[in-house]
Design goal:
heterodimer; A: 120 residues; alpha+beta; Arc Repressor Mutant, subunit A; 3-stranded antiparallel sheet; 5 helices; 58% helix; B: 155 residues; mainly alpha; 2 domains; 9 helices; elongated; transmembrane helix (chain B); membrane (chain B); transmembrane (chain B); WH_DNA-bd_sf (chain A)
């Protein structure tokens, strides 16, 4: 795992959120957009152009793969995507990196809040 | 085809050809889902919706074209439409060179770069550099870009 953290640079927020959206199930384009909005508490609204630009790069990097065409909840046929095993490892490594960072931020915040004022 | 899909399909033509071939159908489907969902939730599709779509697509197309440009190889340049654009751009070189020299002529150090007066005095030389070559260049560039990005279908 640590090997993956050091080997790959941090992911862009969109790529991370797409991986996170695909972590639990296979999804089609609009489903990914909705899931990202939900995960980010409506803070991150990804447009079509941004999404498919990221999907293209993620396919090139073997992070995700097509999961075939299936019927979506609206009854129409849509193309689905899923994580590859490499994508899962990257997502785990990135999540680990975020958790480490969150721990450091929390620790620093505590120290900052409890620090005695400096005398100039 | 519905009007909104017709318009969106035209927007997708801003993307590189290869990108269009791979993702056009999917992007149209996703846009249709987004459009129908917005219509269901808000009861109408307003200017803000189209502004977001337009900005996102234009920005996405710029990024994809830049990425595509970075992947240009000799084999790619040798493709017919790229070759036409390249020839068009090369035809601008004399005018660019002339402008460059004109600027440098103000500095004595670069005097050796001056175009010899007898040649520069020929009217055909000036006319070809300033008018004919750039006009042919513009025609070549336009033809190449039209072929590459299917502009005749966009307009």
């Amino acid at each position: 795992m640590n090997n993956y953290i050091t080997k790959f640079p941090p992911l862009t927020p969109v790529v991370f959120h797409v991986l996170l959206a695909l972590a639990t199930s296979e999804r089609h384009g609009y489903d990914i957009i909705k899931q990202i909005a939900l995960d980010s508490n409506q803070k991150m609204i990804v447009g079509n152009g941004t999404l498919y630009g990221s999907i293209k790069r993620m396919l090139d990097d073997n992070l995700i793969e097509p999961a075939g065409e299936k019927m979506a909840e609206n009854g129409l046929i849509r193309k689905y995507y899923k994580l590859t095993s490499h994508g899962k490892k990257i997502l785990n490594a990135e999540t680990e990196r975020y958790l480490q960072l969150a721990f450091i931020i929390k620790e620093r915040q505590n120290r900052f809040n409890h620090a005695s004022p400096q005398i100039a | 085809m519905k009007k909104h899909l017709f318009f969106y399909k035209r927007l997708l033509r801003l993307y590189p050809k290869k990108f269009q071939d791979t993702f056009q159908k999917e992007m149209l489907d996703t846009f249709e889902d987004y459009y129908q969902n917005t219509l269901k939730e808000k009861g109408k599709v307003d200017v803000i919706f189209w502004k977001q779509v337009l900005l996102d697509e234009v920005w996405g197309a710029i990024q994809e074209n830049i990425n595509n440009f970075n992947k240009i190889t000799i084999a790619n340049i040798m493709k017919k439409e790229n070759k036409i654009i390249l020839i068009g751009l090369l035809l601008f070189l004399p005018i660019a060179f002339t402008l460059f020299i004109t600027i440098l002529e103000h500095f004595e150090t670069f005097a050796f770069l001056r175009i010899p007066t007898p040649i520069y005095d020929y009217a055909w030389f000036r006319i070809s550099i300033l008018y004919i070559l750039p006009i042919i260049g513009i025609i070549f560039c336009t033809l190449g870009v039209r072929k590459k990005y299917s502009f005749k279908k966009l307009i």
